[in-house]
Amino acid sequence: MKCFRVVLVFFSAVGIAQANVDSLAETDAGALIVNVWLNGVDRNIETVLLVTKDGEYIECKTLNELGVDPSKFVKNHDQDGFCLMRGSDIKFQNDDALQAIKIDLPASYFKDNNYESVVVTPARANFGGFINYDFFYSKDDFSNDFNAYSEIGIFKDYWLLNNAILYKDSPDEGQKQFLRVSSLFELEFPEKYLKLRIGDNTSVYNSLTNSFRYGGISFGTNYTDRPDFVYWNMPTLQGSAALPSTVDLYINGVNLYKQSITPGNYSLQTGATIDQAGEARVVVQDILGNQTVQSFPIYISSQLLRVGLNEYDVSLGKLRYNYDEDDSDYRDFFSKVFFRRGVAASTTLGFDATYSKDVSNISFMWTQGVSKFALLDTAYAVSDYNGDIGHAASASVSRNFGTWSFGLNTRYYTEKFQQLGFDEYDFNTKISNLAYINFSNLGFVDGFNLSYVDNKNYKVEGFESVDSKIINVGVQKILTKNLYTSLNYFKNFEDGDDSFNIVFSYNWDTRGNIDLEHSTDNGETVLSYSKNSLLQNGLDYSVAVSNIDSEFNYHGYGLYKTNIGDFRASYDEYTNNKVTQAQYRGATVLLGNKLSATKYVDNAFALVNIDGMKDVDVLRSLSVVGKTNDKGYLFVHDIIPYINYDISYDQNQLPLDYTFEQPVQKLSALNQRGYILDFKVAKTKKFVVNLKDSNNKNFPVGTVVKLNGNEDESYFIDSNGLVYLYLSKPVKYDLKLAMQEGKTCNTSFSISQTQIDNSNDAQVINLVCK
User: Fold this and answer.
1) Tell me, which fold does domain 602-675 have in CATH?
2) Is the Cβ–Cβ distance between 705 and 736 less than 8 Å?
3) Would residue 21 be called left, alpha or beta, if left means φ above 0 and alpha means ψ between -120 and 50 degrees?
4) CATH of domain 684-768
5) Where are the beta strands (DSSP E) in 640-714?
6) Residue 92 to residue 40: CA distance in whole angstroms
7) What is the predicted pLDDT for the residue at 270?
8) pLDDT one-digit tens code per residue, 384-397
9) Residue 736: closest CA among 697, 708, 712
């Protein structure tokens, strides 16, 4: 690198440095273009160095480009665009051999960096609606049955109005043939993680009180439903670095998080994929190989809220009973408040209070991470049922070690404890215990799980009460690359029932799966073959033969997935009965002035419109979901709410004379809403432009032509002075020619739609560039 010294006026292509140095001429200042080393690393960036009687100055904008905060430096009294390289903790060295300056700065001089997880706000839905329908028919040798379930939804922006109806062909005595299952208006506030619901709803539950159905209003947070938002006690890694570095988080020796950082103070959100406990180790390594290591115990659980974060729900209305039998069984008025708060990284406290005329409950909840060892979740509740006071308590401890986990849970209720939403004597639990332990990757087996459930009930005269003590044991083993087996044992110690089940499953690559299963519960052995596809459309099917007591039974199942819904059919033949079932699930959707029969609207969906181009593959996050129809559009279903999807199409399937603007669009959606994604494509027309200079002469061969200021795309003049352009829009086009010695000239022209539609060969346009 050459170095130029200037005494009076410094001429350079460095931009504003010219003016800066001019004003310093009277101070006898010298100016150099030098390379910058920062904290021992060549940063491959040049700056202007001014040497004055007060000291050395460099351009403040260079510091800014290096992530250094210029406000921490003294500015030159004549030009505040230069920063002084002197200070008690600033080390400066001029290396003439390298024609560079070497600066050493502590981390406090760098800008703070906050590497927060990006939470994408869901898009506003287009106005539209849908009618879901689910028809089910069943017939055997003794009876037949037909039911139909339908949902009607209307949506726009962040709101949804939904109404569900059930039709029963043969209702039980006293039941209605047509039944309104639910009616609900829902409005989300995604930027604030809040949701308002008016209509039929289900209450929030805690470890001591179950949820119940009601008709009314609720308002509260909904971030626990959002997979894109980290609401639990994820560790925030904070520190400082003087050099570009990487930060690694290890838990129990496993690397779970990695992030590159720039110099300065940093604050890292470690993401939403960690839910573990143990010994944490944070390793910071700079680009020179220097390492710092910090170790500490940690317990991360989705049951522990982030510090200062509140989870709440306020609801009121009337309790609903027998929703699947009676659409008007609304009874007592109630109100309910549910609240939890992360008070510390390992402590979450809360309460749950409900009130009605006959039954009131209040529960206190405490979730505690015990160092790195376990998670303790406790609750205590009091109920008042017409003056009778009842009590309940629960405690659970759990731990996830990565390759194994365990949990213990116990709940106890006094006899007078009553929950809201239950008829008298419907709830008679005395004590309930659960214990489990799970292992994975044990070596000799790939998985082992053991669980024990113990339930005891109060004896109520006139009501049947059944206790249970149940143990389940399961073992899983991968025998070969394609062969897998599982063994399960079940025993109820109260009634003596037990059973053993063994399954061998062979993955026949793309040809399907073969399964062999035997159960001692009924002595049945089943051999089956199945073939399934993850595509939105296609045919899934299975056939099976079973044997019970030396009698053979035959089974068949098929699922035909189409753009207008899914058709299911099954046939089971037994020695004393034949059962045939058929089901169709689909929808009619109105979106973007398009009325179409589509798949059942379970999640969000999108209308992908590719400007009338038929038979073009449409992709959802790089997976093909189908082809556009004859009108150039396709409905894409199963878009899970709050997940950021890439919706695209295969532009290589467009005709060669077509151009496109944007082949990929991102979409984050809300449940059961519709979104219109328009992809613009256009047919191009070749235009030949004959360019002349002001002397009516051709430009030299290879002269670069830029269209509409697009620096990323260049056209070139050929030996005949012609340039070939492929255009698709009837607008004005600006041309810029870059000639030798840095000279340029400009010209423009306009084309009409008639010229584009003209089927004649390429049209010649004569222009003079000035």
Assistant:
1) Immunoglobulin-like (2.60.40)
2) yes
3) alpha
4) 2.60.40.2070
5) 645-649, 658-660, 664-667, 674-678, 681-683, 685-692, 704-707
6) 11
7) 52
8) 998 899 999 999 98
9) 708
Q: CA-CA distance, 505 to 529, in Å (whole number)? A: 10
Residues 6+ apart with CB under 8 A from 118: none
Residue 324's closest CA among 138, 139, 196, 200? 200
Asked if residues 607 and 599 have their Cβ atoms less than 8 Å apart, the reply is no
What distance in Å separates the CA atoms of residue 148 and residue 345, rounded to the nearest whole number?
Answer: 49
Ranges for all domains in the chain classified under CATH 3.10.20.410: 17-111
SS3 301: coil
pTM across the whole model: 0.72
End-to-end CA distance of the chain: 38
Task: Answer whether 565's CB lies under 8 Å from 600's CB.
Answer: yes
Q: Using an 8 Å Cβ cutoff, are 29 and 42 in contact? A: no
Give pLDDT, residue 652: 87
Boundaries of CATH 2.60.40.3110 in the chain? 236-299
What CATH number was assigned to the domain covering residues 236-299? 2.60.40.3110
17-111 placed in CATH 3.10.20.410 = yes
Lookup result for tokens 């729900």 = 313
User: What CA–CA distance (Å, rounded) separates 407 from 436?
Assistant: 5
Characterize the bridge pairing of strands 594-598 and 715-716.
unpaired
HSE toward the beta carbon, residue 485, CA cutoff 13 A = 11
CB 362 within 8 A of CB 382: yes
**605 and 633 Cβ atoms separated by less than 8 Å:** no
